[in-house]
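4.2 Preliminary Data

To establish feasibility before requesting continued support, the project team ran the inverse folding procedure on a target of 253 residues. The structure was first converted into the token representation described in Section 3, and no sequence information of any kind was made available to the design step. The complete token record follows.
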């Protein structure tokens, strides 16, 4: 596996950890200002990305505003879903990130108690991912996808794409990333798929296509994520070498 492929997987895993990371930590904070801050920061990112897309598609001012409003409403709906369904689950998974066997055991217990437990299959898939067993992880993510609420399904498509990527099937991974982007339902999956697909295209020397998706991901990314992507990972330099530097790589913008 070449260097850029390894970096891609690191970014993929970083994105995968996000629902259980700082975002949900802010949502669950007892400090309502922290919760509001996380929500409004993400909301602003969604509006920026929508505005950028509208300008690229040369929408009229009225259509642009309608599109931005639509995307903001989608994010707000996802945020409500995340608070209701993902927070406790994500916090529990974070607590077991250093214990893949414990994660697998927790998943099996949840599925044993309820065969329709998508959260149980999520635990199992994540445990197998930590053990670097992409085949087993893929099987569990497929079961999670089948059982999960509609709002969560694209997250598992995104994670399945990561499994295919690790198995060396770039075409299948890209197909799933594009499905997530076309569905445009799960905000976290859209962000992750934009970044991962952009970098996968870069790895395959399709830099012009990749730069556009990478830019969308940068617009949705947190400050910490942008710092990683624009800093030591060196992705901007790799795009530039192929003559397709993303606009987001100019940090003066």
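Position-by-position output of the design step:
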């Amino acid at each position: 596996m070449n260097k850029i492929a390894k970096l891609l997987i690191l970014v993929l895993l970083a994105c995968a950890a996000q629902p259980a990371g700082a975002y949900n930590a802010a949502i669950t904070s007892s400090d309502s200002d922290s919760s509001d801050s996380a929500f409004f920061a993400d909301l602003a990112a969604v509006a920026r990305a929508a505005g950028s897309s509208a300008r690229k598609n040369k929408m009229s001012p009225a259509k642009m505003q309608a599109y931005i409003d639509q995307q903001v409403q989608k994010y707000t709906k996802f945020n409500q879903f995340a608070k209701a369904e993902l927070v406790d689950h994500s916090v529990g998974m974070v607590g077991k990130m250093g214990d893949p066997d414990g994660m697998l055991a927790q998943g099996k217990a949840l599925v044993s108690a309820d065969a329709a437990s998508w959260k149980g299959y999520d635990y199992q898939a994540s445990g197998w991912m930590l053990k670097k067993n992409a085949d087993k992880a893929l099987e569990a993510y497929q079961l999670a996808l089948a059982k999960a609420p509609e709002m969560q399904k694209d997250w598992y498509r995104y994670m399945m794409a990561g499994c295919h990527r690790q198995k060396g099937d770039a075409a299948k991974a890209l197909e799933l990333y594009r499905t997530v982007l076309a569905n445009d339902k799960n905000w976290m999956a859209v962000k992750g798929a934009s970044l991962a697909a952009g970098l996968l295209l870069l790895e395959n020397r399709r830099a012009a296509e990749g730069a556009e998706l990478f830019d969308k991901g940068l617009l949705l990314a947190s400050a910490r994520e942008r710092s990683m992507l624009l800093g030591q990972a060196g992705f901007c330099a790799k795009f530039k070498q192929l003559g397709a530097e993303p606009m987001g790589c100019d940090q003066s913008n």
